[in-house]
Amino acid sequence: xxxxxxxxxxxxxxxxxxxxxxxxxxxxxxxxxxxxxxxxxxxxxxxxxxxxxxxxxxxxxxxxxxxxxxxxxxxxxxxxxxxxxxxxxxxxxxxxxxxxxxxxxxxxxxxxxxxxxxxxxxxxxxxxxxxxxxxxxxxxxxxxxxxxxxxxxxxxxxxxxxxxxxxxxxxxxxxxxxxxxxxxxxxxxxxxxxxxxxxxxxxxxxxxxxxxxxxxxxxxxxxxx
Length: 225
Fold this sequence. Notes:
- By secondary structure, the protein is α+β, with helices and mostly antiparallel strands.
- The protein folds into two domains: 7-82, no CATH class; 85-215, 3-Layer(aba) Sandwich (Aminopeptidase), CATH 3.40.630.30.
- The protein is built from five helices and eleven strands; from the N terminus they run H-E-E-E-H-E-E-E-H-E-E-E-H-E-H-E.
- An eight-stranded mixed beta sheet has the order 4-11-5-10-9-8-7-6, with helices on both faces.
- Helix 4 (173-187) links the parallel strand 9 (156-164) and strand 10.
- The chain is globular, with a radius of gyration of 17 Å.
- The mean pLDDT is 94.
């Protein structure tokens, strides 16, 4: 089994165990950190264990190998193909232009949440920033682009929340932020990976130009208890 198989489960059992909670065969990030959860195998017992970790109406996001088959206490809100891509170590040109890129902190969280709600790069909560380092670009004082790190496990770091305000597209912000993150991830000896909707062709093409290759096609399932 590759390290990136069942990656949420592995992150919650290694580098990010302190950001999650567990019950039986299920693991989940604290809801303020992320809605992502996982189990070792998608059995009825695992779905029941996961249900113990959430409140009624709360949502959980899963990365699965096949379509979800939850028990009756769950409702499928959405299910879609999700590409997992892995970066070929050292394969992309790393820009040295870091001007205007700044690390984001606690004070930036309201703007980070607002930008992700507008651009929808994936789930982002009030404490998601604690999963890794995040960087952004500001124009006239407003946050207009950002990217950061989400899932982490030994030897691997996920690039996530790559997004640009629609009024500021085409200025190369995503490419520069990606280059910064790739430099940092490789600098500490990790390999970068990411997840992206299969139908987001613009993003997939950018990631391929930056040295990522398609590794696996997963199913993203959003469930509500």
